[in-house]
Design brief:
Elements lengths: L1 H58 L2 H9 L1
Length: about 70
C-alpha cells in the first residue's frame, strides 16, 4: 500500500510540475490569453478523450492500466 501511495504522489507531483511549466511558458509567449488557451485545450482534450480511453482501460488488467497511466 505504501508503494502505491508513493507512486501516486510521484505522479501527482509530475502532473503539477508539467501544468506549472506549461503555464509559465504560455504566459511568457502570449500572456494570460495564451495561458487560458493552453488550459482550455488541455481540459477539452481530457473531456473528449476521457470516455474513449476509459472504455479501453476498463478492458485491461488494473495493474497494467495504472502503469500506463503513470507513464
Amino acid at each position: 500500500m505504501i508503494r502505491l501511495q508513493a507512486a501516486w504522489g510521484a505522479v501527482m507531483t509530475a502532473s503539477w510540475a508539467v501544468t506549472i511549466s506549461l503555464t509559465v511558458v504560455a504566459y511568457d509567449v502570449g500572456g494570460s490569453a495564451a495561458v487560458a488557451l493552453a488550459m482550455l485545450v488541455r481540459a477539452t482534450a481530457g473531456a473528449l478523450l476521457g470516455p474513449a480511453v476509459g472504455s479501453l482501460v476498463d478492458r485491461a488488467p488494473r495493474h497494467r492500466s495504472l502503469r500506463w497511466a503513470a507513464v
